[in-house]
Design goal:
CATH superfamily: HybD-like
Helix content: 25-40%
Shape: globular
Order of helices and strands: EHEHEEHEH
Largest sheet: 5 strands, mixed
CATH topology: Rossmann fold
Distance between the termini: 20 Å
Number of domains: 1
Number of strands: 5
Strand content: 15-25%
Structural class: alpha/beta
């Protein structure tokens, strides 16, 4: 039986390479529709919120996608682990690990969860600049990798 899968990108499209997560979702959604792959959902936002625990609770496999300032080659995929961070009423941004922990606490569900980090380079608030060329290459590398893994992902036999 095919798994239900969510791709959730986040970042600020007005801050150049911070838009990598959002752009990944746009391109991946188009590719999924063109290839008529079922049971895939998409979501995006500026940042993760506690309400996202509800969203991920409805899926078997979740891929969060975000830009990264880390020293990566191009992109990296890591399994998300639960976080013990406390959620506060005034908290504006939370990590995928906190979302996963909330999902477990509230809904008693723990989807298989990954974070796709895509290396970015510029973070200035410039709405008309778009992604840098190097970040676009990294985005395409990540998309190509995930698209190649889709048969495994849909079956839930992921090896990343």
């Amino acid at each position: 039986m095919d798994k239900t899968i969510l791709f959730y990108g986040y970042g600020n499209p007005g801050r150049q390479d911070d838009a990598l997560g959002i752009r990944f979702i746009e391109l991946m959604e188009t590719w999924i529709k063109e290839n008529d792959i079922q049971n895939i959902s998409f979501d995006s936002n500026y940042q993760l919120n506690i309400e996202d625990a509800d969203t991920i609770s409805e899926h078997d496999i979740v891929f969060f996608v975000d830009a990264s300032m880390e020293q990566l080659e191009s992109f990296e995929i890591s399994e998300v682990e639960h976080s013990n961070a406390q959620v506060e009423f005034t908290m504006h941004a939370i990590s995928p690990g906190v979302v996963l922990s909330l999902c477990q606490q509230i809904y008693k569900k723990v989807p298989q969860t990954y974070l796709i980090h895509i290396k970015g380079y510029k973070w200035e608030l410039e709405f008309d600049k778009g992604l840098t060329k190097k970040a676009e290459k990294n985005l395409n590398d990540a998309l190509e990798f995930i698209q190649g893994k889709m048969p495994e992902i849909v079956k839930g036999t992921i090896t990343i």
